[in-house]
Amino acid sequence: MLLSRAASIPIAIPLVVVTGAGLRVTMDEFQSGEEAVENTIGGNAYQHNKVNQWTSTVVEHCLNQLTKLAKPFKYIVTCVIMQKNGAGLHTASSCFWDNSVDGSCTVRWENKTMYCIVSIFGLGV
Amino acid sequence: VVFSADEASNIIKECVDSIIGGIDYNHSKINQWTAAVVEQSLMHLVKMGKPFKYIVTCAIMQKSGAGLHTASSCYWDSSTDGSCTVRWENRTMYCVISVFAVSIML
Fold first, then answer.
1. Is the pLDDT of residue B94 over 50?
2. What does UniProt give as the signal peptide span (chain B) (predicted)?
3. What residues does each domain of chain B span?
4. By CA distance, what is B74's nearest residue in A?
5. Predicted complex: ipTM over 0.90
6. What is the pLDDT of residues A88-105, one digit of tens each?
7. Number of residue pairs across A and B with CB atoms under 8 Å?
8. Which residues of B touch A1 (CB under 8 A)?
9. From CA A51, how far away is CA B67, in angstroms rounded?
10. A54 touches chain B (CB under 8 A)
11. Beta strands of chain A (E only): which ranges?
């Protein structure tokens, strides 16, 4: 197995970023992420006392959907929810893996009061 | 081989200190900083020479009173795989770095 560095991915504007030369991480994973976010925080405004619950729910639902896909992957799902307040937020990720089988995708979602960024990393077993 | 969260955590803290240690939030440099943090952290982790695939993520946020919450969930082999998260701050910004290590079965 050849391990190499995937390019660093600054996560800023694009709605969907799917990486990994093998592209075995596909639209299925992206849809899992999107559904998890819509169903959890779809019509809601930012609420400080609920955010912890929301982030946990989003990652759990997303992971549940992903495991239902029954693909030979280990998954890592991360979710960031940030209130819209004019602050700057920048994220980046760098991965040391096997480019032919591993990949990631990022779902960026927003409404009037908050941003939500879900990253899904899939590692082939 | 089991992932050592303590070792990884120390490596990350050193990397962040050396890149954004005493500096104030600067919109024009931030992309450069996040990229540098993830790249250098990854380089140091790989140098440890352990049989792991790594994922390093970094979020830098300006201190301005906004709320930020993050969560992560992982589907893996909990006897060999692991993660660690480092929360770092200075006067003008917060930095949250997560490292996920997945064992390579040889």
1. yes
2. none
3. 5-103
4. A76
5. no
6. 888 888 889 988 889 889
7. 156
8. 104
9. 9
10. yes
11. 4-5, 9-11, 16-19, 73-83, 89-97, 103-110, 114-124
